[in-house]
Amino acid sequence: QFVDVWVMFNLTKTRPFSRAELGIYEQLIARARESLRLRFGAESLWLASPSFFSRIDGDKPPIIANDEYWHTHADTLQYGSFVYTGLLYLSDGGSDFDGGRLVFETA
């Protein structure tokens, strides 16, 4: 289920996330920024809207079409605000999981 964080914070009367949950979100963003800074020298990185963080569990069947991440697609066509898409894997193929590969196809 997708959550629009802006709507949750600005249009509801209740606090949608605990401080601990927000801390995890901030840590994910910081880790992604640091990894990109070290690898590509990106000194400034801002998240686009919408931004997605996903945990993919190969043991669970997909619930909606977007859970079937393996289909060929172009994020810039699905989400007009996307200029680029970054994938940061926090696990290692061959030790944390087997199979699968990321392929960038030419148009």
What does this structure look like?
- With 107 residues, this protein is an all-alpha fold.
- It is 30% helix and 0% strand.
- The chain has helices at 5-10, 19-40, 75-78.
- The chain is globular.
- The protein starts with a helix and ends in a 29-residue tail after the last helix.
- The model has no long low-confidence stretch (mean pLDDT 76).
Q: What's the short story on this structure?
A:
This protein is mainly alpha-helical. Helix content is 30%, strand content 0%.
Q: Name the overall outline.
A: globular
Poorly predicted segments: none
Q: Please give the share of residues in helix.
A: 25-40%
Largest sheet: none
Secondary structure layout:
Layout: H1 5-10, H2 19-40, H3 75-78
List keywords for this structure.
mainly alpha; single chain; 107 residues
